[in-house]
């Protein structure tokens, strides 16, 4: 129900006053003055009616504009919902195609196993030839199984990892400001979430000796973290001279070469006889060791040292970060470390495919 305003009360009072005046003149027999007062009353009624009509018409126009705005907003929301529905349908179709490809790959793996059995039954060569062939087939099966496991894991949880990496990338650029173009993030199997986790360890823990082997993009972000912290040294291990040169060039481009010692090391799997000796440039007393396999590298486990050498390199309270921990070959390496060192425990992890281990911290779920 509309409210009565002060203006309405004044108009009513004026109307009643004029009606009273007309009545008084009529009772007094003064017809001319009564007609004049009546004419004023009629004129005022017309003016007030016109003002009220104009006011109501303005309100109606305003309400009509508001209604049109609401309609346009609803139409935009509806169009956005339709676009999201189309995009979701495309994502579902893509996921279905990927699952079909995985099933085909699994079928090929079963076929390869059958071929291996038939080959084993028909081999008439020497014992060394039979063992070599079996080893090759097992290696091929292991690699294809690792590929299959990786694809299956990415099909199951693509959205969670994508959101984690988006958050990690935002946090990296919020904390650090690169001064030159960055390599592709797709090369790091740690992902943006894992890289941010490593940089946070560098800033929060007392790590003076940080060692990295693997994708050089991770090493670059670690160098930025050390520069922000103000202390510590990064040691980057490369397999060949070309890797050393490329890593140095990247660090120099980002004005970080003074914070890193880039070394060329070979495939080392054994500890030295003398506990104080150096092994092909490998450091001792390491506080943080990051083994970040390049995402495009599908080779063996040459990146990882054996359990004894690992214990020789790391301090008692050091942290060990390993990417691609869900791969079969990497998982076997980690299990061999845990079997050789019962006190080595998984302590925490930024994502399901990254393992973080330590001798000096209690295990967490």
Proportion of strand residues: 5-15%
**Overall geometry:** elongated
Can you say what the CATH homologous superfamily of the largest domain is?
Vaccinia Virus protein VP39
Order of helices and strands: HHHHHEHEHEEHEHEE
The number of domains: 2
**CATH class descriptor name of the largest domain:** Alpha Beta
Return Rg in Å: 39 Å
Helix/strand class: alpha/beta
Runs in which pLDDT lies below 50 for 5 or more consecutive residues are: none
C-alpha end-to-end distance: 64 Å
Number of helices: 9
**CATH second-level architecture of the largest domain:** 3-Layer(aba) Sandwich
CATH topology of the largest domain: Rossmann fold
* Oligomeric state: single chain
User: Can you give the mean pLDDT?
Assistant: 78
Describe the biggest sheet?
7 strands, mixed
Instruction: Report strand order across the widest sheet.
Output: 3-2-1-4-5-7-6
Give the proportion of residues in helices.
55-70%
Care to count the β-strands? 7
What does this structure look like?
With 365 residues, the chain is an alpha/beta fold. The protein folds into two domains: 1-115; 158-358, Rossmann fold (3-Layer(aba) Sandwich), CATH 3.40.50. 61% of the residues lie in helices and 11% in strands. The chain is built from nine helices and seven strands, in the order H-H-H-H-H-E-H-E-H-E-E-H-E-H-E-E. Strands 3-2-1-4-5-7-6 form a seven-stranded mixed sheet. Helix 8 links the parallel strand 4 (286-292) and strand 5. It is elongated, with a radius of gyration of 39 Å.
